[in-house]
Amino acid sequence: MKHWKIGLLAFCVSGALHAAPLPVVSSFSILGDVTKQIGGERVAVQSLVGADQDAHAYHLTSADIKKISAAKLVLVNGLGLEKAELSRAVKQSKVAYAEAAAGINALKMPESGHHHDHGEGEHHHHDHGEYDPHVWTDPVLMQKYAANVADALIKADPAGKTYYQQRLSSYQGELKKLDAYATQKFNAVPKGQRKVLTGHDAFAYMGKRYGIMFIAPQGVSSEAQPSAKQVAAIIRQVKREGIKAVFTENIKDTRMIDRIAKETGAKIGGKLYSDALSNGAPANTYINMYRHNVDTLSGAMK
Ligand SMILES: [Zn+2]
Q: Partners of 26 in the beta sheet?
């Protein structure tokens, strides 16, 4: 009898932690990590596009539709990162959803024609819209992103409000430190040397924040393949700008970058984690991923 009472008391005190965690589906691994950082023990997060996978190339599967229906909250990036088929499935499921990039002052997609190789008279359907979705490459914007995730968690699980708010504020503190770290690292590189080439155009927000010029043969969506003519133009640009380092990405085939490096004499500066975390080190969380990218970029630009 006594044991039973103690057991019941223990259950009441720690009831919040013992309740089943809130099932949350996130569209890709970076958003999944931000959700875990804020949701802590109160959430169980599954990402549709996992570590080292390309979010641009993702297509919805029936298994994913089941995950969405079983969730209490679906989080997407927004700004056209996810294809329309995903938003349709989420709306049909009637599960609550939120866009992490909502309210962020997004950059427009580059206008220039070299990003997408449209054949004459062809009408491609680009699900990505008018804005650049890669807001996570700026840790300052990520403070708002994290706040949006926290708001969505609070709506889905009001009992956890204080818990989520506390975790949000400590995570935002980490993001501020991350920005200070990146500022210090990039400021140590002379401005004229802050020029790099990556596979796809994922780093415009980072470029804007820290004054780095990024050139990317593949455009904003990694799905678009550059033509031979575009690659030749990029090679000329790398030579003209005196770009010293080119970078591969974890989500991409490295052949094009290898070829550009070979033809220009630029060195391969390392591997960047652009649109996905890694399984384990060095980019198993958003913050670790960002630090790795800052170290890799700033080290190779000098
Ligand atoms: Zn991308």
A: 47, 75
CB 207 within 8 A of CB 191: no
Centre of ligand 1 from the C-alpha of residue 224, in Å: 11
CA 3 to ligand 1 center in whole angstroms: 56
pTM of the model: 0.87
pLDDT in tens, 214-258: 988 877 777 777 888 888 888 998 999 889 889 999 988 888 888
- For residues 72 and 51, the answer to whether their CB atoms sit within 8 Å is no
| Cα 216 to ligand 1 centroid, rounded to whole Å | 11
Nearest alpha carbon to residue 48 among 64, 62, 31, 69: 64
**How many angstroms is it from 1 CA to the middle of ligand 1?**
60
pLDDT digits (tens, 9 = 90+) for 137-158: 999 999 999 999 999 999 999 9
Residues 80, 223 contacting (CB under 8 angstroms): no
Ligand 1 centre to CA of 132 (Å) is 9
Q: Which helix (H) or strand (E) segment is 199 a member of?
A: none
Burial of 174 (0-12, 13-18, 19+ CB in 10 A): middle
